[in-house]
Automatic annotation (TrEMBL):
<dbReference type="InterPro" id="IPR002347">
    <property type="entry name" value="SDR_fam"/>
</dbReference>
<dbReference type="GO" id="GO:0016491">
    <property type="term" value="F:oxidoreductase activity"/>
</dbReference>
<protein>
    <submittedName>
        <fullName>Oxidoreductase</fullName>
    </submittedName>
</protein>
<dbReference type="InterPro" id="IPR036291">
    <property type="entry name" value="NAD(P)-bd_dom_sf"/>
</dbReference>
<comment type="similarity">
    <text>Belongs to the short-chain dehydrogenases/reductases (SDR) family.</text>
</comment>
<dbReference type="Pfam" id="PF00106">
    <property type="entry name" value="adh_short"/>
</dbReference>
<keyword id="KW-0560">Oxidoreductase</keyword>
<feature type="region of interest" description="Disordered">
    <location>
        <begin position="292"/>
        <end position="316"/>
    </location>
</feature>
Length: 342
């Protein structure tokens, strides 16, 4: 790794020369890099995978359904000639599935020894009306959107830190949401045991995700682990404004019509994915930052400020400790720093 002063100078240089606009079809060359995307069979995860593959990256498409993964794999190969992709079965609401998937990545899935970034994208957007729990008793929305990714990131931390080089610090990107600004959601009853509401479950889970993403970066720096943590959100990205892709996005005529009425405030998932991909690959971005569309719900990726609650140090620390307790997982910071030679 470069000494800190050199790295800052390099980043200044890159920033000064970085194009002001971000064109998802003209990313910095990603040849030789490997990225893992959760929930890659549909929506933002699929389109992020396409953008990365088009730029030359090797992309691990992960998802919980073998059939949907196969369809996404076929679609991506058809739309991006020469794409380098593989699939990985991974249900982020199931700890056993996370551990098994992470073990195959650590074991050098398809002989690839490096992992340059992880997009922690999978999520339940249309949350259940009634409170549901996972097999190990965790509230389903929290478990899927936040806890599963907390465990996955921990499981992949040493693989990421081993992949750090003089020119690239591996990254994890967490999926936040602009909904975290709409109300003061401080997740004290983190599993909504005292009262469940579908919308609250979503927003709380996203406050947790954002807090984890920001806190992870602080802890990674403190421990000297060469991995960055960034939070990004896609604004308001909807299927009916998104290109049809067989087996991946096939909205009905009614959905196209309905979503078309929201055109002034919405964008396609393909465009929404741009903020996530920029957060994952732009060398001018550093850990702890928050990225999203320029007009909040749509537009080009820009740097923004996260909601006050999710960036509050006390809230972050409380959420981190609660996630450690609920998942039974502590991040292997010391080992990750050691394997990177720190
Ligand atoms: N769209 C927006 O405007 C918006 C705004 C803010 C944040 N976000 C966030 O962006 C992410 C993606 O949203 P999207 O709009 O692309 O949603 P989407 O089209 O519904 O896609 C969600 C993806 O997550 C996967 N998923 C759900 N539960 C899973 C599990 N237990 N294990 C593995 N994969 C699972 C889904 O797989 P299946 O097909 O198997 O269900 C699907 O691939 C979410 O985290 C969401 O909260 C979206």
């Amino acid at each position: 790794m470069l000494p800190k002063a050199c790295r800052s100078a390099y980043l200044r240089l890159v920033t000064e020369h970085a194009p002001r606009s971000w064109d998802p079809a003209r990313l910095p060359d990603q040849t030789g890099r490997t990225y893992l995307i959760t929930g890659a069979n549909a929506g933002l995860g699929y389109f992020a995978s396409e953008q990365l593959a088009r730029a030359g990256a090797h992309v691990i498409l992960s998802g919980r359904s073998p059939n949907k993964l196969a369809a996404a794999h076929d679609a991506l190969e058809a739309r991006v000639p020469d794409a380098s992709v593989q699939t990985l079965l991974l249900d982020v609401s199931n700890t056993g599935s996370i551990r098994a998937a992470a073990a195959s990545v650590r074991g050098g899935l398809f002989k690839r020894q490096r992992l340059d970034g992880v997009l922690l994208n999978a999520g339940i957007v249309h949350t259940p009306r009634q409170r549901e729990t996972t097999r190990d008793g965790r509230e389903l929305v929290l478990a899927t959107n936040a806890l599963g990714h907390f465990v996955l990131a921990a499981e992949l931390l040493t693989t990421l830190s081993k992949s750090a080089s003089r020119t690239w610090t591996p990254r994890m990107v967490w999926l936040g949401s602009m909904s975290t600004r709409m109300g003061a959601y401080d997740p004290v009853d983190i599993q909504l045991e005292r009262g469940y509401h579908a919308y609250r479950a979503y927003v709380q889970s996203k406050v947790v995700v954002q807090a984890l993403g920001i806190e992870a970066d602080v802890r990674l720096r403190d421990a000297g682990v060469p991995v960055e943590s960034v939070v990004a959100h896609p604004g308001y990205s909807i299927g009916g404004r998104t290109p049809r892709v067989q087996g991946v996005n096939e909205p009905s005529a009614w959905k196209r019509f309905k979503d078309g009425l929201q055109a002034p405030i919405a964008q396609s998932k393909e465009r929404g994915a741009a903020s996530l991909v920029r957060a994952l690959v732009d060398p001018a971005i550093t850990g702890g930052e928050y990225w999203g569309p320029r007009l909040i719900t749509r537009g080009e990726p820009t740097r923004q400020q996260p909601s006050r609650t999710s960036s509050d140090p006390e809230v972050r620390q409380r959420i981190w400790e609660t996630c450690e307790r609920l998942s039974g997982m502590e991040w292997p910071f010391a080992r990750a720093a050691r394997v990177a030679g720190r």
